[in-house]
Design brief:
By secondary structure, this protein is α+β, with helices and mostly antiparallel strands.
């Protein structure tokens, strides 16, 4: 009996020992798995952190690239304007030269006629008339006539000389204008080539930036940063008083800043958690962007995800925003009139296609531009 109990006890001990050993092994395995998961998480977090750092660096580089594009595009736009003006000036000078040449031809004919008349009357001089014992009154008439012809001839010579001098000046002016035109054409060509190089560099940076935004979380963070940056700008601007009358009375009467197709509607989904607060308008690169109403420029620079952007304060809490420009033509603090060109359409801010992003705000809140522009 005692032997049986001893055997049973030994068996139970062996079973318990086996069970405890199995539990310990399982615990160690789970602990090992947990450590591996922690290591993976740490690696992933490090990877996300690295990606964010890379993203920041690429954004900073994109900003430099797009500002370089904007500088060259602005110079190119200005040189094109100068070309237009100098061509107009050359045409004005050309017409002046033609008029002066016609005038000089008429004056030469008048001078020749005056000389001929003087020559004819010169053959009957005042002294000769007296020696021939002609009437004194007749002699005096000839004398007066002769003096008048002499005066007219002298005036004709002076006018002809003046016309010749003016013609020479206009011809010199035309030569200078032609030389300036040639220089502007050369500068225009050089700036066009420089613009291509800057665009090429920008495309490389953008391609790398787009490949870096592989996770939706990073893209969402970028949108959140964008909205926060813009909201801060608008909030700060609302603290500054302006002397403009706002847009309330102009609702439904304003023109769009550019003509083109609207690729989204106000309030439509931009992403799963973000809605559009403005309108994207397709337009050709370099198209002039017109300000919708009188106001003052409160921001004219590059901003994350908006690219080259101008914000105009119209008073009474109304502001208009023009983003993704190729170049900005207005400076911060400058007053603008309705219809002034303040920018050129582009694709800055990381966009692949040219177009304008247009927003309207009232007291910091986005409002539908379609209610104001027709």
């Amino acid at each position: 009996m005692r032997l049986s109990l001893l055997v049973v006890g030994l068996c139970a001990g062996l079973i318990a020992g086996t069970a405890n050993g199995s539990d310990n092994a399982d615990l160690k395995q789970r602990q090992l798995e947990l450590e591996q998961i922690k290591l993976q998480i740490a690696k992933q977090q490090a990877s996300i952190s690295n990606r964010r750092q890379q993203h920041k660096k690429l954004l900073a580089l994109l900003k430099k690239d797009e500002k370089a594009v904007a500088r060259v595009a602005k110079k190119l736009s200005q040189s094109k304007d100068e070309l237009t003006q100098i061509k107009k000036a050359i045409e004005v000078t050309r017409k002046e030269i033609l008029q002066l040449e016609d005038q000089m031809s008429i004056q030469q004919q008048q001078l020749i006629s005056s000389i001929r008349s003087a020559y004819k009357i010169g053959s009957h001089s005042f002294l000769q008339l007296l020696l021939e014992q002609q009437q004194v009154s007749q002699a005096e008439r000839f004398s007066v006539y002769y003096q008048a012809l002499s005066q007219a001839r002298s005036e004709a010579i002076d006018k002809l000389q003046e016309t010749e001098n003016t013609l020479y000046q206009r011809q010199q002016q035309q030569s200078i204008q032609q030389a300036k035109l040639q220089n502007l054409v050369a500068a225009n060509l050089e700036q066009s080539q420089q613009l291509k190089l800057q665009k090429s560099q920008r495309e490389k940076t953008l391609k790398q930036l787009q490949s870096n935004i592989s996770s939706s979380t990073l893209g969402l963070e970028q949108l959140e940063v964008e909205q926060a940056s813009l909201q801060k700008l608008i909030t700060d601007s609302l603290q500054r008083p302006t002397h403009f009358s706002g847009l309330a009375k102009s609702a439904g009467k304003l023109s769009w800043p550019v003509s083109g197709n609207h690729t989204n509607s106000f309030g439509s989904k931009r992403s799963a958690q973000v809605k559009w607060k403005g309108i994207n308008i397709s337009a050709k690169e370099g198209t002039p962007v017109k300000v919708i109403a009188d106001g003052v420029i409160i921001f004219s620079d590059w901003m994350n995800n908006f690219g080259m952007m101008t914000v105009v304060d119209h008073g009474e809490g109304y502001m208009s925003l023009y983003a993704h420009a190729q170049a900005l033509l207005g400076q911060t603090g400058a007053r603008v009139k309705k219809g002034d060109t303040i920018a050129l359409v582009g694709n800055s801010g990381g966009k692949s296609k040219a177009g304008l992003y247009f927003e309207l705000r009232h007291k910091g809140q986005a409002v539908n531009p379609s209610k104001y522009c027709k």
